[in-house]
Amino acid sequence: MELKACLLFLLLLLSTKPVKTCDFPAVFNFGDSNSDTGGLAAAFGQVPPPNGETFFHRSAGRYSDGRLLIDFMVQSLGLPYLSGFLDALGSNFTHGANFATGGSTIRPPNRTRHQSGLSPISLNVQSYQFNDFHVRTRQVQGIFKQLVPKPEAFTRGLYTFDIGQNDLTGGLFLNLTVDQVKASVPDILGQFKTVVKDVYDKGGRFFWIHNTGPIGCLPYVLEYLQINEGQMDKNGCANPINELAQFFNRKLKDLVNQLREELPEAFITYVDIYKARYTLISQAHKHGFEYPLKACCGYGGKYNYNIHVGCGGKVNDNGKEIIVGSCKDPSVMIIWDGIHYTEAANKWVFSHIVNGSYSDPSIPLLLACQRKRD
User: Fold this and answer.
1) DSSP at 351
2) What are 295's strand-pairing partners?
3) Is 340 a catalytic residue?
4) Residue 169's closest CA among 97, 222, 98?
5) Which member of 47, 207, 242, 330 lies 3.0 to 4.6 Å from 268 by CB, making a disulfide possible if both were Cys?
């Protein structure tokens, strides 16, 4: 797949007819903590240091030591980093908005954030926020007019989705079996479809949809679910949980194909984030990384992760209170805090998806507004 995409890109560059890359004026993102650039922090309190230390040198509303996939994406498109829709201070929405919040699910959670750790700002709420944003950008006047997208940005912009992980793990953490969580996937994706179609009805045409990653390789899943050795693959990841993620992804890809039929003017790119992330984890040393399943910012245990205290939290160590800090060199680590990825890992994954190597159709991000050429 990667070679095929690279050859396609090369042929496009060498073709006698010039290839015009997409000039997306804005990006509108929907998702969870994998792409949250400040939404949850604005709603429920700032992300504590050492989050943000590598790139921003401060807490920047992201659950990582630095940039996320969405940051690398907008940067490659020549756009500024996206402001969280809920972040009222210092935000500029000229080139889009980010509706993602950490802990978001596709289906609305049936428990409070305190009970479940999930965000009340599920995908349907993010959709309501987008609809309101879409309407109000046409109503604002004066200086504020300069801080919102132009009307044509909503039709020519790129709509990105990176959500679904918490629907799967949330069910498992409620003691549902893998089969029971699988049974909920049609309803989950039905609600996802509703939101995509609503964006399309508002004029959105260009969609970039990530599937869910190998959640069975994340310390918070491995610790919380107490996976036994017989359920591990050769890389130390939980087979049943990764198989659940792959089941979700197959159904998501089926849905994308269905949406292509139902939304004839849509350009939808499905991105296999699972394959990209698992490739990095399974070949960590080859790519200059160490301890692929160990958290950089954490405390104790096999994975340097404690389900009771997170990155930046406080823990009592032999009568002495210490702050859970980062490892010596985050640039050689894949997992940041047991749940999320380091900037180095995000950068590696982005560099491998930007050219279409892990996409269907296998076209680069810069050509995501075009049909694949035969």
Assistant:
1) H
2) 335
3) yes
4) 222
5) 207
Q: Is the pLDDT reported for residue 335 higher than 70? A: yes
Whether cis (ω within 30° of 0) applies to the bond prior to 18 is: no
Task: Report d(CA 207, CA 198) in Å as an integer.
Answer: 12
**Model confidence at 235: pLDDT above 90:** yes
Residue 234 makes CB contacts below 8 A (sequence gap 6+) with none
Provide the residue type at 168 as one letter. Answer: L
DSSP-assigned beta bridge partners for residue 271: 210, 359
Tens digit of pLDDT for each residue in 296-333? 999 999 999 999 999 999 998 888 999 999 999 999 99
Task: Please identify which of the residues 32, 340, 352, 357 carries the catalytic annotation.
Answer: 340
**pLDDT of 51 above 60:** yes
CA–CA dist 331, 345 (Å, integer): 8
Tens of pLDDT along 352-373? 999 999 999 999 999 999 976 4
Strand partners, 269: 208
- Dig out the tokens for 10 from the structure: 């090369």
- 226 by Cβ neighbours in 10 Å (0-12 / 13-18 / 19+) ranks as exposed
Q: Is 119 a catalytic residue?
A: no
Extract the tokens encoding 97. Answer: 């908005």
Q: Which of 35, 65, 337, 352 is catalytic?
A: 337
Looking only at Cα atoms, what is the longest distance across the chain?
A: 72
CA distance 113 to 104: 10
Across the range 67-76, mean pLDDT stands at 98
Q: Tell me the C-alpha distance between 127 and 139, whole Å.
A: 19
If you average pLDDT over every residue of the chain, what do you get? 94
Is residue 116 part of the annotated active site? The answer reads no
Asked whether the beta carbons of 100 and 37 are under 8 A apart, the reply is yes
